């Protein structure tokens, strides 16, 4: 099956819907492992990047979860195939997105600093290290960055924060990709990682104020990097 992009529908969207359709037909079952990225690439005749984007969307919708060293598993039946989060289509949407993200992630990290466990800290550090490894060009870094922010949300042990951040991954990804397309990701990678480290330090120290302030600075700086390269 050779897929081509249709106006208004990306290849990753089409792959996502095809995987959902296969789950609904019973080809892939809940609690079972999906085919590997390589197998899905061959099945749908698309690039591995396209498959990863499709899997990332399925993770953000709670249909699939990644298990380190094992692969992607189906954790629930899809209720529908439409996006669960609004997409970004204008400058105004970007501003709205950052206002939303400021409220949600600053609040989530404040709770994470109070509620985190040692296992949470290990997961956050692992996500940070994975992101750090992309600095030399080993991957785009977008998915690793998303995993770090999701790990911080998980440390809050509040399912409402976790669900909200997970469902917001699609617009977060859009903004990150926009920054990368503008050539700002590599140029600011050291600064971004320093901002991430400051957030992590606040969580590790169980300091809600420090963690919240660091997350707020990171989100504001991310917004500035989108609009003026600052």
From TrEMBL:
Keywords: DNA-binding, Transcription, Transcription regulation
Domain HTH gntR-type, first and last residues per copy: 9-77
Keyword Thylakoid appears in the UniProt entry: no
Domain of life: Bacteria
Molecular function terms, GO-annotated: DNA binding; DNA-binding transcription factor activity
Pfam families named in the record: FCD, GntR
Protein name (Swiss-Prot/TrEMBL): GntR family transcriptional regulator
Organism: Caballeronia choica
């Amino acid at each position: 099956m050779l897929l081509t992009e249709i106006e208004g529908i990306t290849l990753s969207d089409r792959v996502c819907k095809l995987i959902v359709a296969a789950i609904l037909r019973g080809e892939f079952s809940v609690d079972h492992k999906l085919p590997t990225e390589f197998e899905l690439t061959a099945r749908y005749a698309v690039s591995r990047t396209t498959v990863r984007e499709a899997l990332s969307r399925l993770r953000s919708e709670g249909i699939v979860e990644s298990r380190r060293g094992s692969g992607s598993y189906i954790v629930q039946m899809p209720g529908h195939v439409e996006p669960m989060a609004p997409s970004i289509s204008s400058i105004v949407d970007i501003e709205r997105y950052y206002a939303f993200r400021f409220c949600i992630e600053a609040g989530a990290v404040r709770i994470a600093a109070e509620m985190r466990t040692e296992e949470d800290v290990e997961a956050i550090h692992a996500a940070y290290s994975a992101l750090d490894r992309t600095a030399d060009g080993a991957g785009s870094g977008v998915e690793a960055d998303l995993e770090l922010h999701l790990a911080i949300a998980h440390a809050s042990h509040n399912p409402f924060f976790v669900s909200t951040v997970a469902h917001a991954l699609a617009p977060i990804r859009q903004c990150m990709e926009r920054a990368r397309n503008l050539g700002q990701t590599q140029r600011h990678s050291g600064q971004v990682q320093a901002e991430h480290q400051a957030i992590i330090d606040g969580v590790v120290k169980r300091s809600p104020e420090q963690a919240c302030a660091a997350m707020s600075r990171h989100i504001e700086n991310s917004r500035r990097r989108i609009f003026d390269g600052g």
